[in-house]
Amino acid sequence: MSTPASTENHPNILLRLWRDKDTRSVFIQIITMVIVFTFLGLIINNVVINLEIAGKDFSFGFLNYPAGYDITFQPFISYSPTDTHLRAAAVGILNTLLVAVSGVIIASILGFTMGVLRLSNNWLISRLVYVFLEFTRNVPVLLHILFIYSIFLYVLPVPKKAINISDTVFLTNRGFIFPSPVFEDGFGFVWIALLAAIAIVVFFVRWERKNQDATGEHYPVFSISLAILFGLPLIVFFISGAPMAWEIPALKGFNFKGGTSIKPEYIALTFALSYYTACFIAEIVRAGILAISRGQTEAALALGLLPNRSLQLVVIPQALRVIIPPLASQYLNLTKNSSLAIAIGYMDVVATVGGITLMQTGKEMETMIIVLLTYLFFSLIISAFMNWFNRRMALVER
Amino acid sequence: MRALAKIALTAVAVGAMAFTATAGTLEDVKARGVLRCVVSTGIAGFAYPDSSGTWKGFDIDFCRATAAAVLGDSSKIKAITSTGKTRFTKLNSGEGDVLWRNTTITFSRDVGVKLTFVGVNYYDGQGFMVNKSLGVNSAKELDGASVCIQTGTTTELNLADFFRANNMSYEAVTIEKNSEARAAYLSGRCDIYTTDASGLAATRSTFPNPGNHKILPEIISKEPLGPAVRQGDDQWADIVRWIYNATVTAEELGVTSSNVDSMKGSNNPEILRLLGVEGSQGEELGLSKDWAYQVIKQLGNYGEIFERNIGTNTPIGLARGLNDQWNKGGLQYSPPFR
Questions:
Q1: Does A72 reach chain B within 8 Å, measured CB to CB?
Q2: Which of residues 26-65 of A touch B (CB under 8 A)?
Q3: What digits encode the pLDDT tens for the residues B254-313?
Q4: Tell me, what's the pLDDT at A38?
Q5: Which residue of B has its CA nearest to A31?
Q6: Size of interface A-B (CB pairs under 8 A)
Q7: Considering the domain boundaries, does residue B14 fall inside one?
Q8: End of a domain among B173, B195, B221?
Q9: Judging by beta carbons within 10 Å of its beta carbon (0-12, 13-18, 19+), is residue B89 exposed, middle or buried?
Q10: Which of B221, B253, B275 is the C-terminal boundary of a domain?
């Protein structure tokens, strides 16, 4: 078919190269790369040109200037308006982290519970959970946040009419106020005892596993560990003469003074994000459990395992393999959704560096880069952790 | 590969040219036939959509005045709503042509955010609103109080400064939108609501029981509110500046929307210059001869715009105060039309 004349024909060579699977894929990859890089270059070039036209320089120097604004909720590092924008950003980032971590924990507990209840044989329970799931999942999360916040504000009383629990704990619409511990000299021993208890527990768990492998004996690991963890520091605490006092909150003027206050903004945001995300987790858990065939449980029971142990040792480890990958993306969602905080005045990274700092300095590009990198960093850490966990749980083929 | 690189570079260069905003805002607006004003998401009396969806208010009327002068028709506006946070970005990115959104002129905004402020159409100051039942009579009695603030404003900084200067502590509840901040104040989450006094009056007018709340006498800051344009377009800045000046001059000279036609026959040369009967001010600005006539005919002078939207006969009920004419004890003072 191929005559000498046709091989000299230029277009035909191209056509033949195109028909070759390997060269074609190389071609397509090169073209795609060029398009992607051209587009990126176009965007960056435009940013540079437009910033230049607007007469704005690109620098992060503003981070060292005094911020001038106040952040109410600063549980980790102290901050006052005379501190720098950098410190304000740090407070915001830590507040985001706090919501993300506590949200993930609460969402997991709620989600697993609801997922299991959804499969309950009790018709009423499974239907109730089902209705709650469907209602919650199909309403935007921002509305949940605003809803919970306004419930908080309107249901709980103002400080002057606070719900008073034996003159120590007060519930108001400005937060839950608890007595805060004041550590006195000698409390250091308690910390040392706690560290020692942790070491003992780690050692005990390892020994128990070995012992079980060797002899088949099984101890109630969880309750023993718990007893050591709480018991040892508690004993040391009383031996060293209880070196701790409580600072009791009291109403002075407009607000309570003293004690620790958990702000309604934090509670509303964390709670709303948690139960919203928990609904998705519940469905993932249900899917995971249903994915394990009934035969697995029957086989475990036939081997003589108690129902509890068969769930623990046979069903859940297998279900986790189905659950973990979609669970990771729910954790990522929760973290990213926490950026809605500003709607109810919780000072997270978007509200501080991406909000007030942006406004005061006019550095849109720089502040947004900080905010983006913060979320990217958190998300990558969650991804890395969940990937590691997934690998650990993966099927070990023998 | 070299050829490809060249093509890529050319594409980048062409794209850059296509994307870069042109300098002449006036030409852009005329070509588009619509003026895009960056306004707030809704403040009673200043900028809000009424029940039929038409934008109304003090700032909106100045936006309409701009459209009347530039396009001859005050209805040819598009309201670009923005929060306190996004307003400068919306102006600077070219999404809007002019910012009429009770924005305080400050050094950092003028210099750092690269805006050109062209006048002060409302002299304001930050105040405090409290529930009367608290029995507070002065802002100096607010030690330890919780304060609701709307974010993205100069308010946060003034508040921090005021409490620091008076050695008082407070708890700030910083919320993005007026609607949620208002709800937090009404529920008792905060003792105080703080923003510009005009904003307090506007917000109070929307409360279920406005009479239960009072605005404390202390004004803790200077808040000159005015329009802004992008830096670097001097012609456009001049246009917006003189549209505002025209409304102030018209009030000073007694020209109103009802007598503007007969005023064309006035023997006061400044009125004749203002209305475009004499002189060439319209052409020098790049506008039609009767630009200021259109503004006054369609919207009225400064006093009319003020009284219609936020004056003592409206629910907002603001007195002229600092915003009266300079010869009546206020600060509204326009350079002469000469």
A1: yes
A2: 30, 34, 37-38, 41-42, 45-46, 49-50, 53-56
A3: 999 999 999 999 999 999 999 999 888 899 999 999 999 999 999 999 999 999 999 888
A4: 94
A5: B4
A6: 146
A7: no
A8: B221
A9: middle
A10: B221
Would you say residue A386 has pLDDT above 50?
A: yes
What is the average pLDDT value for chain B, to the nearest integer?
87
DSSP SS3 for B114: coil
* Secondary structure letter of residue B21 according to DSSP: P
B1 has pLDDT over 50: no
Q: Smallest Cβ distance to A154: which of B20, B84, B187?
A: B187
In-domain check, residue A288 = yes
- Determine, for residues A359 and B183 on separate chains, whether the beta-carbon distance falls below 8 Å: no
Residue range A261-267: average pLDDT?
89
Q: Once rounded to an integer, what is the mean pLDDT over residues A288-306?
A: 88
Do A266 and A387 belong together in one domain?
yes
CA distance B106 to chain A (A): 10
Judged by CB atoms closer than 8 Å, whether chains meet at A42 and B174 is answered as no
If pLDDT is split at 50, 70 and 90, which confidence band does A308 have? confident
Q: Do B15 and A45 touch (CB under 8 A)?
A: yes
A130 and A99, same structural domain?
yes
pTM of the model: 0.73
Q: Are B274 and B250 in contact (CB under 8 A)?
A: yes
Q: How far is the C-alpha of A98 from the C-alpha of A78, rounded, in Å?
A: 15
Contact B112 A362 (CB under 8 A): yes
Q: Residue A256: enclosing H or E segment and its boundaries?
A: strand A255-257
Give yes or no for residue A9 having a pLDDT over 90: no
The whole-number pLDDT of residue B3 equals: 52
Parallel, antiparallel or unpaired: strands A169-172 and A180-183: unpaired
Interchain proximity B114–A54, CB inside 8 Å: yes
Identify whether residues A220 and A350 lie together within a single domain. no
Task: Tell me the chain B residues in contact with residue A351 when contact means C-beta distances shorter than 8 Å.
Answer: 151, 174, 176
The parent domain of residue A320 ranges over 85-179+258-393
Residue B324: DSSP 8-state: S
* A140: number of Cβ within 10 Å: 10
Distance to chain B for A218, nearest Cα, Å: 54
Helix A21-53 to helix B2-19 angle, to the nearest 10 degrees?
Answer: 40
Which of chain B's residues have a Cβ under 8 Å away from the Cβ of A153? 183-184, 187-189
Residue A78 inside a domain? The answer is no
Q: Which residues of A touch B112 (CB under 8 A)?
A: 361-362
The percent of residues above 70 in pLDDT, for chain A, comes to 96
Residues of A in contact with B232 (CB under 8 A): 53-55
Region A3-31: mean pLDDT is: 75
Taking alpha carbons only, the member of A283, A380, A366 closest to residue A328 is A380
Q: Are A116 and A285 in contact (CB under 8 A)?
A: yes
- Round to whole Å and give the CA distance between A180 and B160: 27
Same domain, B240 and B309: yes
Contact list in B for residue A359 (CB cut-off 8 A) is: 84-85, 151-153
Name the residue among A101, A96, A93, A92 with its Cα closest to residue A331: A101
Q: Cβ contact (<8 Å) for A253 and B172?
A: no
Of A53, A356, A362, the CB nearest to B88: A362
Torsions phi, psi for B329 (to 5 deg): 95, 5
**Interface contact A359-B177, CB threshold 8 A:** no
Average pLDDT over residues A59-83: 84
Answer with the one of A220, A247, A274 that is the final residue of a domain.
A247
Answer yes or no: do A22 and A136 share one domain: no
Q: pLDDT at position A330, please? A: 93
pLDDT at A68: 83
Best of B25, B149, B156 to disrupt the A interface (most A CBs within 10 Å) is B156
Q: Which domain holds residue B170?
A: 126-221
Quick check: is B11 in a domain?
A: no
